[in-house]
Design a protein that fits this description.
single chain, globular, 9 helices, 8-stranded mixed β-sheet, alpha/beta, 4-stranded mixed β-sheet, binds S-adenosylmethionine
Length: 320
Amino acid sequence: MNAHNIQFHDLHPTRNEFLDDVLAGLSRQPASIPPKYFYDERGSKLFDLITRLPEYYPTRTETAILKANAQDIATHVGTGSLLVEPGGGSCEKVHILLEGLRPCVYVPMDISRDHLRLAAEELAIEYPWLEIHAACTDFTRHMSLPAALPEGKHVAFFPGSSIGNFDPGDAVEFLRAIAGLVGRGGYLLIGVDLKKDKAILEAAYDDSAGVTARFNLNLLVHINRELGADFVLDNWSHKALYDEQRGRIEMHLVSTTEQTVNVAGQTFRFAAGESIHTENSYKYSADEFIQLAEQAGFISDKVWLDANHLFSVQLFTVKS
Ligand SMILES: C[S@@+](CC[C@H](N)C(=O)[O-])C[C@H]1O[C@@H](n2cnc3c(N)ncnc32)[C@H](O)[C@@H]1O
């Protein structure tokens, strides 16, 4: 592929950053590893499979909301903006917006380098009029745009309820960074998963085909490959539970036996039943999320919901 309308910026986290995060996380009590490390090439492919599972309502619900309201979104946001998508992944949902928004530049950012590169290249061929600057970056460390982009109103698109992966305090900080990125008069269009029945939530994160389990366990495969660790996959099992009080799904990898694991010369002991906490996914009511975004300097413009109130797509502007 040799589309002329794409540039790739590579700020992929270094092996040392990955190692430091894993060693620090495994030293914690209870152990935890940031969910960004799910996403190597295989992790991104497994996530794409998750989005098509019958139990995983968020993707199809959010997609339906975006399709039903694409015209309304375009009316609010207008055309000709610089559209930035942190965690763009396969860049699937942006297709719904591109014709209506007709951005002058699209900047997908993602930690999963090869997956992002391929998705952005495909998009560049499909939309030859669109200038694309794809940036492989860890958006929790670098929230900045590539240099020398055209002027224009900035719109951040953050779908998939990825905001739920942050604890609420960190979510405010992250949203504040987005507000800084889009600047005064800029927009944030964000997908936020809503609080709902525990059984629906737990099924979405523990599907009957076991794809989410493979996705969770792939974290250990990634660590073994990149950091030379010796996790034995058969000694770990996937667990997802909804903590109603905290309003969050927790994903864990549970040690099925007493064992030791070696990572870069350090040994970690795990008792049977002990777990590594691998992801949180916070759920909000639409109003709770508006309050959170207001703390970060946003004003709510509009909330779109599906008929069953499973998911919300929300539009904010930066307070002036
Ligand atoms: C839950 S998936 C959502 C994908 C897509 N936006 C969607 O709505 O379906 C999270 C995406 O964010 C990326 N990601 C996760 N943590 C990241 C980080 N710290 N920096 C950059 N990208 C990250 C992953 O590679 C993945 O593509």
